[in-house]
């Protein structure tokens, strides 16, 4: 399985939903909190081109946010993206 990275904030409902989907699928992920860390948030913005959380990467592919992750799941494309 490809590595999954997710930038989050503790109070973000979308972050919680994205993590719940990954957990239901048994997907391990690395989580980076941007709370109180302007340098980490700036790094996320530089990499993603977006300021909102969550921002999710599967391998080297930037998935986007929670809605994008769920759309991949609904389309039946998430498992293929996660596969090695």
From TrEMBL:
InterPro entries per the UniProt record, alphabetical: Glutaredoxin (IPR002109), Glutaredoxin_subgr (IPR014025), GRX_bact (IPR011900), Thioredoxin-like_sf (IPR036249)
GO biological process: cell redox homeostasis; cellular response to oxidative stress
Gene3D superfamilies on file: Glutaredoxin
GO CC, any one term: cytoplasm
Source species, domain of life: Bacteria
Matches recorded under Pfam families: Glutaredoxin (PF00462)
The keyword Transport appears for this protein: yes
Signal sequence residues: none
Keyword flag Disulfide bond: yes
Single GO molecular function: glutathione disulfide oxidoreductase activity
Keywords: Cytoplasm, Disulfide bond, Electron transport, Redox-active center, Transport
Residues annotated as domain Glutaredoxin: 4-63
Family, per entry: Belongs to the glutaredoxin family.
Biological function: Has a glutathione-disulfide oxidoreductase activity in the presence of NADPH and glutathione reductase. Reduces low molecular weight disulfides and proteins.
UniProt-recorded name of the protein: Glutaredoxin
Lineage of the species this protein comes from: Bacteria, Pseudomonadati, Pseudomonadota, Gammaproteobacteria, Pseudomonadales
């Amino acid at each position: 399985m490809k590595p999954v990275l997710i930038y989050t904030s503790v109070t973000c409902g979308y972050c919680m939903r994205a993590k719940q989907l990954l957990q239901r699928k048994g997907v391990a992920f690395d989580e980076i909190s941007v709370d109180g860390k302007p340098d980490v948030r700036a790094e996320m913005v530089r990499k993603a081109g977006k300021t909102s959380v969550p921002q999710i990467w599967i391998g080297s592919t930037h998935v986007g946010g929670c809605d994008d992750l769920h759309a991949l799941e609904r389309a039946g494309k998430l498992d293929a993206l996660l596969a090695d």
